[in-house]
Design brief:
By secondary structure, the protein is of the alpha/beta class. Strands 2-6-5-3-4-9-8 form a 7-stranded mixed β-sheet, with helices on both faces. The chain has a 7-stranded antiparallel β-sheet with strand order 20-21-24-25-26-19-27. A 5-stranded mixed β-sheet has the order 11-10-12-13-14, sandwiched between helices.
Length: 595
């Protein structure tokens, strides 16, 4: 083998790699079939800053820029202490989107060269984001790498993403994503085993002898569904669910996996194990381009499911996104369950789920833009409620500190402390558990909920891929208007409604667990009746910016709680557009998506 290489004292990136060659190489115990480790010189990129959901870019960015993926993968692995690598396990998998297979082979080759002892990879590379979180926690892995761009479109012209999760099973916190970004900006070389090829199709262990390494490198291919299904069996009453889905008065369900990663999980768990007919699950084969669709479970992109549900043949419908962490729930005739209401209903019926009978309920949480429906349940049950910025990691902190049991966000994410990611299939089984316990339709469950707690009318307008400069200037000007002292107490009228400004701020959050403060999390306009208008600028898309407008208004008048949200909220929408000049400033005449 090659001689020892001394530790570089210089740039951080080369010293990360240099430590790999400092092990003694006296004699090799494994004969001649050695896998070669090479160090490849590279040039850093300045744009590899991971967001809350990892690094997301157009597929072409990964394909056309030399070493783009290699640099980022090396930067992730460089954050793992060299001493932890040999004994450490990384979990790897993704949502099946285009470029995933190539990325997984790169991760295998780079992880091996960097001294990681073992990888656990889903069969054919397939693992949902909740399943990765589940496996990391179950096998006590040092982390996981998820190949997904979530609900963004896939295929050669779509998006690709690489996301790093830590040993808790949750997304890497800012301290780590910052470190990854810093390394990516100065990286000079990466280590790789270019000849290593792993068969992802066959379940079982494969071992490779690497030059300079005392222990072989192990890759274990596991069934994509098994660990996750075992976990759900311990959370829910599968016998009751089986009776619901395949017993005498079976609930007819329609589940649309949108050609994302959840298909195999739905087939195995809902159909094979819980007995729902095979034809109740559609679009169950993960496709590299999600069948040319946008794998986002909302009324716009899951229109096929909505139309099918409107026919009245099915009692319950659900859709999932590309990587399986988001969900949409529908009742008979396409009755839409707003995600803010969904988490509130689960909270109000939480003991229908055996898991919570064992753990008790430690707290509820919602992201700031999510409606106050959950707050009403928290108040009635005297359970602590946390309001956090958008981003699942804030929930994860609270869960790790045993302060939180159930949480949700308006962007179709619902979850609990069973893992550290939102979990689409978990949410659907939670709903089915409530239906089994209450023996009511989705619509009746919600109507009874609103009668008891009042109703938060909620809508979100998304303006996608608007000019980033124009959008941020609009937000800046709006903030100046809102933070002007004269703004408080102002009255705004539209239709037959008049609203008085009680509070205006830019939301900030002080984390009760680690003391960190997150500022500029969204402009909030709160009126004297508790209604809220929220503006947020978001950058998770891969082109342009997205402006999101959220409207939330509470109503307890039994005469009004069944009205159409768009009608009820029209005056507030008018006021929001007037105050922000949103259409004039973005050149749009209306939103891309209304939820």
């Amino acid at each position: 083998g090659p001689g020892r290489r001394s530790e570089d004292v210089g740039g951080s990136s080369s010293s990360h790699i240099a430590s790999l060659w400092t092990r003694d190489t006296q004699g090799t115990a494994y004969g001649d079939k050695m896998t070669k480790i090479t160090s490849v010189k590279t040039t850093p990129y300045s744009d590899q800053k991971p967001g809350t959901s990892g690094l997301r870019k157009r597929v072409t960015v990964f394909q056309q820029n030399p070493n783009y993926a290699e640099n980022f993968i090396q930067s992730i692995i460089s954050t793992i202490e060299p001493a932890e690598r040999q004994e450490g396990v990384l979990v790897v998998g993704g949502d099946g989107r285009f470029y995933m297979k190539e990325a997984i082979q790169l991760i295998i080759r780079i992880a091996a060269a960097n001294g990681i002892g073992r990888l656990v990879i889903g069969q054919n590379g397939i693992l949902s984001t909740p399943a990765v979180s589940c496996i990391i926690r179950k096998i006590k892995a040092i982390g996981g790498i998820i190949l997904t761009a979530s609900h963004n479109p896939g295929g050669p012209n779509g998006d690709f993403g690489i996301k790093f999760n830590i040993s808790s099973g949750g997304p890497a916190p800012e301290a780590i994503t910052d470190k990854i970004f810093q390394i990516s900006k100065t990286i000079e070389e990466y280590a790789i085993c270019p000849e290593l090829n792993v068969d992802l199709t066959t379940i079982g262990k494969q071992q490779f002898d690497l030059e300079n390494k005392f222990k072989p490198f192990t890759v274990e291919i596991v069934d994509s569904v098994e660990s996750y299904a075992n976990m759900l069996r311990n959370i829910f009453d599968f016998a009751a669910l089986k009776e619901l889905l395949s017993g005498q008065n079976q609930l007819k369900i329609r589940i649309d996996s949108m050609h994302g990663v959840v298909g195999p999980y739905v087939k195995k768990i809902l159909c094979e194990e819980l007995g729902s007919p095979a034809n109740s699950a559609v679009n169950c084969v993960p496709l590299e381009d999600f069948g040319g669709h946008h794998p986002d479970p909302n009324l716009t992109y899951a229109a096929d499911l909505v139309d099918t549900m409107k026919g009245g043949e099915y009692d319950f419908g659900a859709a999932f996104d590309g990587d399986g962490d988001r969900n949409m729930v529908l009742g008979k005739h396409g009755f839409f369950v707003n995600p803010s209401d969904s988490v509130a209903v689960i909270a109000a019926n939480i003991f229908s789920i055996p898991y919570f009978q064992h753990t008790g309920v430690r707290g509820f949480a919602r992201s700031m833009p999510t409606s106050g429906a959950l707050d009403n349940v928290a108040k009635a049950t005297k359970i602590t409620l946390f309001e956090t910025p958008t981003g699942w990691k804030f929930f994860g902190n609270l869960m790790d500190a045993n302060k939180l049991s159930l949480c949700g966000e308006e962007s179709f994410g619902t979850g609990s402390d069973h893992i550290r990611e939102k979990d689409g299939l978990w949410a659907v089984l939670a709903w089915l558990s409530i239906i089994a316990a209450r023996k009511q339709s989705v619509e009746d469950i919600l109507k009874e909920h609103w009668q008891k707690y009042g109703r938060n009318f909620f809508t979100r307008y998304d303006y996608e891929e608007v000019d980033a400069d124009g959008a941020s200037k609009m937000i800046k000007d709006l903030e100046a208007t809102m933070l002007d002292r004269a703004f408080i107490g102002q009255k705004f009228s539209a239709g037959d409604k008049t609203y008085t400004v009680e509070r205006a701020d830019n939301f900030e959050y002080s984390d009760p667990v680690d003391g960190s403060i997150s500022r500029n999390q969204g402009l909030r306009l709160i009126f004297s009746d508790g209604s809220r208008i929220i503006f947020r600028l978001s950058g998770t898309g891969s082109a342009g910016a997205t402006v999101r407008l959220y409207i939330d208004s509470y109503e307890k008048d039994p005469q009004k709680i069944y009205q159409d949200p768009q009608v009820m909220l029209a005056p507030l929408v008018t006021i929001a557009l007037k105050i922000s000049q949103l259409h004039e400033r973005t050149g749009r005449t209306g939103p891309t998506v209304i939820t």
